C-alpha cells in the first residue's frame, strides 16, 4: 500500500555550514563527508528512497519549472536548511530572481510537509526578516536544530519525530498509476471497442455502422469520449483512496469510499433496469429472412399449437415492410433497411399516440400513393404486429429471461459494458458531491488541505463537461429510434418532442452538477479563467443538444454516414484535449508558479 518516501532539500551553497571545515574522527581533515552528504544518508536510513539535492549550481531562470518544480511536487518532505548566513544571502538577493525563494513558494503552494533545519547555531528568521508574504509562513513552523558536525545517527535522531508521521501515512505509489492506466485501458476496450467488434461480426460491417449510429450514445460515445472521463477521474480517485486508507475513523472511511460502493450499487440498478425491458439492442429474430445473421432460432418446444402460433407471429412480423411501401413512407432511412436488426420491432410496435401533436409533420404532397397505402396497411395491422411481437418475448415463455426470442451474442457484452461504463460515471457524480461537501484533512495533524480539493474540482469540472457531450449523442439516438413512432396516417411517423424529455432532464441534471462545481471553483479557488472557458464549452455543447432536437430530421439523414460521426467526434475530442490543457492540475499549478514573479513585478 505504502510507497517509498521522497525528500527535497533546499539550501544555499554559500551558507556557513557548506563552506566551513568538517572535522574527521581524529581531528580536522577530509575523511568525514560534508554535511549535505550526511543529511542525505540520514534521510535514506529513515526510508526515503529518493533525496533531491542539486549537485550543480542552478542559476536564476534555469528551467526551474521542469527540474525543481517536478521534484518538489513529487516529494513527501521538504527540508529547508538554514545556516548562519542564510538570512544575509536572502537579503542580498532581494529584487532578483531567487531560486531558493521560489523553491519555498512552490513547497507552500503544494502544501508539502516542511521541516526547517537550523544548522550550526543558526537562528530562525522572523516575519520582519522575511518581508515576502509567500514564505513568511516559514517562521511559524517548528524548526529542528542540528550541529554542522553532527553524525548521520544524530541527524536521524533529530528528524525522526518529523518523519514519523510520514512513515505511518499510506500513499499510492507508482504501482497505482500503472494499475489505473491498465484498468482504464481495459474499461475503454471493453466498453468502446469490444461491443462494436462483436456487433460488426454478428450483423455485418455495413449493417452495424447503421446500428451503432442508431445507438450512438452507447456505441460511439464510449469509443471516443470515455477515455477523457477516465483521465479526469484519476486524480480525484487517488485523493479519496489515500484519504480512505489514512482515515482515523470508520465513518470517515465510509464517507471517503462512498463514490466507489455507491457508484457500484447505482450502476447495478441501472444495468438491471436496462436489460430487464425490451428496449435495448439484443433481441433478434434471425429467421425472419433467410439472409439474417445471428444465433439460431430455438423455437418453442411446448406443443404443435405453440409452434404454429410462433411461425405465424414470425410471418406477421416479417411482413411489416411488404413491397417496400412502408420503407418509403419512413423516408427510406437507413435503419429501415434491415428487418433482422435487434430491437427494431419494439419501436415498430410502440402503441400509436391517441392524438396528433403540432410537432408532427405530415408526409406531404410529395408522398407517393404506394407510401400512403403502405402506411395505411401497416397502421391497420399494427395491433396484430404488436401482439405478435409481445407474444414472442412474453414473460410466460421458456427462453432466456422468460422469452423464446433468441438473443444476440452482443447481449452479454452490451450488459457488462453498460455496467463498466456507468460505474465510473456514477462515481464521478458522487465524487462531485463529496468534494463539494467534505473537507480532506491531513491525517497526522487534521489540517484541512486545499490542494486536493482544488485538484478534484478542476478534474471533475472537466469530467462534467465531457459528460455533457453525451447529451447530444443521446438526443440523436432517440431521434433515430423514435422515427418509427407513428401519430397517424396523415401526419406520418417520426420523433416528437416528448421523446427528448428524458434527455433534457438528464442534461439539466448534469448542468446543475457542472454549475455547482464551477461555483465552487470560483468561490473557493478564484479560477475565473477556467470558469469562463468551461462555460463557453458547455454553451457550445448545449447548442449542439438544441440543434439535435430542432433539426433531428436533417441529422437522421446525416448520421447515415459514418464520416459524420468521425468528423463530429474528432472535432469534439480536439476541444476536450484543449480543455484538459486548461484543467490539468499539474499544468495549472505550474502556470501559477511561473506567473507569480510577473504578478509581483506588476504589483
Number of helices: 23
Low-confidence blocks of residues: 331-336, 351-366, 395-404
**CATH architecture label name of one domain:** 3-Layer(aba) Sandwich
Strand content: 5-15%
Mean pLDDT: 75
CATH class of one domain, named: Alpha Beta
> End-to-end span in angstroms?
46 Å
What class would the helix/strand composition place it in? mainly alpha
> Percent of residues in helical segments?
55-70%
Strand order of the largest sheet: 4-1-5-6-7
Please tell me how large the radius of gyration is.
Answer: 33 Å
The CATH topology of one domain comes to Rossmann fold
The biggest beta sheet reads: 5 strands, parallel
DSSP strand tally: 9
In words, what does this structure look like?
Keywords: Membrane, Transmembrane, Transmembrane helix. InterPro entries: TIR_dom, Toll_tir_struct_dom_sf. The chain crosses the membrane at residues 175-195, 207-233, 413-435, 456-473, 504-522, 529-549, 561-581. This is TIR domain-containing protein. One of its GO terms (biological process) is signal transduction. The protein has 603 residues and is mainly α. Among the domains are: 5-167, Rossmann fold (3-Layer(aba) Sandwich), CATH 3.40.50.10140; 286-392, no CATH class. The chain has helices at residues 16-19, 35-45, 64-74, 86-92, 99-109, 152-167, 174-203, 205-214, 216-219, 221-246, 250-275, 304-318, 325-329, 344-348, 369-392, 410-437, 450-468, 470-481, 501-525, 528-550, 552-558, 562-583, 585-602; strands spanning 5-10, 23-24, 27-28, 48-52, 77-82, 113-119, 144-146, 486-488, 492-493. It has a five-stranded parallel sheet with strand order 4-1-5-6-7, with helices on both faces. It has a two-stranded antiparallel sheet with strand order 2-3. The chain has a two-stranded antiparallel ribbon with strand order 8-9. Helix 10 (221-246) runs antiparallel to helix 17 (450-468) and helix 17 (450-468) packs antiparallel against helix 22 (562-583). The radius of gyration is 33 Å and the shape is elongated. It starts with a strand and ends with a helix.
Amino acid at each position: 500500500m505504502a510507497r517509498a518516501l521522497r525528500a527535497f532539500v533546499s539550501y544555499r551553497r554559500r551558507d556557513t555550514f557548506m563552506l566551513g571545515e568538517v572535522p574527521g574522527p581524529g581531528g580536522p581533515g577530509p575523511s568525514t563527508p560534508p554535511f549535505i552528504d550526511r543529511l542525505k544518508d540520514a534521510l535514506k536510513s529513515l526510508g526515503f528512497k529518493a533525496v533531491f539535492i542539486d549537485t550543480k549550481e542552478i542559476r536564476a531562470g534555469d528551467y526551474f519549472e521542469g527540474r525543481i518544480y517536478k521534484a518538489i511536487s513529487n516529494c513527501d518532505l521538504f527540508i529547508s536548511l538554514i545556516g548562519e548566513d542564510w538570512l544575509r544571502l536572502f537579503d542580498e538577493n532581494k529584487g532578483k530572481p531567487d531560486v531558493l525563494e521560489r523553491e519555498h513558494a512552490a513547497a507552500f503552494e503544494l502544501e508539502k510537509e516542511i521541516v526547517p533545519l537550523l544548522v550550526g547555531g543558526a537562528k530562525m528568521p522572523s516575519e520582519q526578516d522575511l518581508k515576502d508574504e509567500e514564505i513568511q509562513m516559514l517562521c511559524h513552523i517548528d524548526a529542528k536544530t542540528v550541529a554542522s558536525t553532527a553524525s548521520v545517527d544524530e541527524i536521524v535522531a533529530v528528524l525522526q519525530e518529523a518523519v514519523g508521521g510520514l512513515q505511518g501515512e499510506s500513499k499510492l505509489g507508482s504501482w497505482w498509476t500503472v494499475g489505473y492506466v491498465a484498468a482504464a485501458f481495459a474499461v475503454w476496450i471493453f466498453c468502446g471497442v469490444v461491443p462494436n467488434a462483436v456487433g460488426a461480426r454478428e450483423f455485418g460491417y455495413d449493417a452495424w455502422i447503421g446500428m451503432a449510429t442508431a445507438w450512438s450514445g452507447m456505441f460511439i460515445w464510449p469509443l471516443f469520449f470515455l477515455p477523457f472521463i477516465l483521465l479526469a477521474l484519476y486524480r480525484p480517485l487517488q485523493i479519496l483512496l489515500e484519504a480512505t486508507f489514512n482515515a482515523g475513523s470508520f465513518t470517515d472511511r465510509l464517507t471517503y469510499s462512498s463514490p466507489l460502493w455507491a457508484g457500484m450499487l447505482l450502476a447495478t440498478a441501472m444495468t438491471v433496469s436496462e436489460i430487464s425491458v425490451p428496449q435495448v439492442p439484443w433481441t433478434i429474430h434471425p429467421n425472419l429472412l433467410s439472409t439474417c445473421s445471428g444465433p439460431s432460432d430455438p423455437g418453442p418446444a411446448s406443443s404443435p399449437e405453440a409452434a404454429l402460433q410462433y411461425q405465424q407471429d414470425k410471418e406477421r412480423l416479417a411482413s411489416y415492410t411488404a413491397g417496400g411501401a412502408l420503407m418509403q413512407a419512413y423516408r427510406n432511412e437507413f435503419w429501415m433497411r434491415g428487418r433482422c436488426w435487434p430491437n427494431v420491432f419494439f419501436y415498430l410496435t410502440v402503441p400509436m399516440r391517441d392524438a396528433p401533436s403540432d410537432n408532427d409533420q405530415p408526409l406531404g404532397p410529395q408522398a407517393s400513393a404506394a407510401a400512403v397505402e403502405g402506411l395505411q396497411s401497416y397502421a391497420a395491422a399494427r395491433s396484430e404486429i404488436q401482439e405478435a411481437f409481445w407474444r414472442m418475448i412474453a414473460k410466460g415463455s421458456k427462453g432466456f429471461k422468460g422469452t423464446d426470442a433468441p438473443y444476440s451474442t452482443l447481449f452479454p457484452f452490451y450488459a457488462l459494458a453498460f455496467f463498466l461504463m456507468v460505474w465510473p460515471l456514477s462515481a464521478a457524480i458522487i465524487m462531485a458531491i463529496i468534494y463539494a461537501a467534505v473537507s480532506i484533512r491531513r491525517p497526522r495533524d487534521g489540517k484541512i488541505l486545499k490542494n486536493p480539493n482544488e485538484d478534484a474540482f478542476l478534474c471533475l469540472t472537466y469530467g462534467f463537461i465531457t459528460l455533457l457531450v453525451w447529451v447530444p449523442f443521446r438526443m440523436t439516438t432517440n431521434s433515430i429510434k423514435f422515427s418509427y413512432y407513428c401519430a397517424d396516417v396523415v401526419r406520418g411517423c417520426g420523433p416528437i418532442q416528448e421523446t427528448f424529455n428524458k434527455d433534457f432532464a438528464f442534461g439539466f441534471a448534469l448542468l446543475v452538477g457542472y454549475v455547482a462545481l464551477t461555483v465552487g471553483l470560483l468561490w473557493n479557488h478564484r479560477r475565473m479563467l477556467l470558469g469562463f472557458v468551461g462555460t463557453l464549452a458547455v454553451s457550445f455543447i448545449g447548442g449542439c443538444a438544441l440543434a439535435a432536437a430542432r433539426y433531428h430530421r436533417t441529422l437522421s439523414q446525416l448520421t447515415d454516414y459514418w464520416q459524420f460521426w468521425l468528423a463530429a467526434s474528432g472535432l469534439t475530442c480536439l476541444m476536450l484535449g484543449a480543455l484538459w490543457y486548461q484543467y490539468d492540475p499539474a499544468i495549472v499549478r505550474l502556470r501559477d508558479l511561473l506567473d507569480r514573479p510577473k504578478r509581483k513585478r506588476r504589483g
